[in-house]
Every structure is written in C-alpha cells, then in structure tokens.
C-alpha cells in the first residue's frame, strides 16, 4: 500500500532501526519506545489489522510469534518476562493501520492496562 508507513519501512523507503528481517517478516525498534526494549514485528505484506487476517495468514502469524520468541531471547528479556501487544482498531489504540505486534520488555508492566 503506497501511503502506509510500515510498508515504506518494509520496502526501505524510509529508515528504521531493523533488528530482524526475512522474506516475509521485518522487526524494527519503535520510534517512540515505551520500555527499554520496544520492538515492532510486522509482516512485509500489507494487512490492515487483526480484523483483516485470512485463513492463509495463519502460518505467517505463527512465524511472527516464533520471531518474537527469538527476539525476546536476543534482547535478553526472555527469562525476566516481557509483553506482546497488538492494538486493533480505534478503541484498541491502533494508530498505524498495518498489523504489528509490540514486543516490550525491560521493565515491570501493570495490569489491567490503561
Ligand atoms: P499502535 O498504536 O499499536 O498502532 O502503534 C504504532 C507504533 O508505531 C507506535 O508505538 C509508534 C510506532 N511508529 C509510528 N511511526 C513509526 C515510524 O515511522 N518508525 C518507527 N520505527 N516506529 C513508528
């Protein structure tokens, strides 16, 4: 999608601090980190939100979670714990309409979230 900022990051049209990449998935540091570790993991193909997932995306989402597990270990937060967040839609707090998963760690998170 031409006006999607995360598609532009995936296509290297705008710079980002990339921490992982393969043919289908890319992960980069959040521009406005809310924790010492704050990585966004996205599919390279444009999927607007969790609401737009198709049956064919099942293995892609599984792969994204495998990468999240690897990155949590690489970033050294796997043993102390971390949070994975997907914001979906307006009330969910989604501001970028390309599905993404926040990997957040390095501090204590509260529950319930705000
Ligand atoms: P959400 O609210 O779940 O849609 O989160 C969107 C996140 O994307 C937010 O934490 C800030 C981040 N973000 C927005 N624009 C950019 C960008 O251009 N580069 C990077 N690295 N992160 C961005």
Which features would summarize this protein structure in a list?
114 residues, alpha+beta, HIT family, subunit A, five-stranded antiparallel sheet, 3 helices, 5 strands, globular
Superfamily (CATH H level) name = HIT-like
Number of domains: 1
Q: CA-to-CA gap between the ends?
A: 31 Å
Tell me the CATH architecture.
2-Layer Sandwich
Count of DSSP helices?
3
Q: Could you please say which CATH topology applies here?
A: HIT family, subunit A
Looking at how many chains there are and whether they match, the oligomeric state comes to single chain
| Share of helix, binned | 10-25%
Q: Topology as H/E string?
A: HEEEHEHE
Radius of gyration in whole Å, from Cα?
A: 14 Å
Structure ligands: 2'-deoxyguanosine-5'-monophosphate
CATH class descriptor = Alpha Beta
Quantity of strands, as a count? 5
């Amino acid at each position: 999608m031409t006006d999607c900022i995360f598609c532009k990051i995936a296509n290297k049209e705008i710079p980002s601090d990339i921490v992982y990449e393969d043919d289908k998935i890319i992960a980069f540091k959040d521009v406005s980190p809310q924790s010492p570790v704050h990585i966004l993991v996205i599919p390279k193909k444009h999927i607007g939100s969790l609401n737009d997932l198709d049956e064919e995306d099942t293995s892609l989402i599984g792969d994204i979670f495998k990468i999240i597990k690897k990155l949590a270990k690489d970033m050294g937060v796997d043993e102390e714990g971390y949070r994975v967040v997907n914001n979906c839609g307006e009330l969910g707090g989604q501001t970028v309409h390309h599905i993404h998963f926040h990997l957040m760690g390095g501090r204590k998170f509260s529950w319930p979230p705000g």
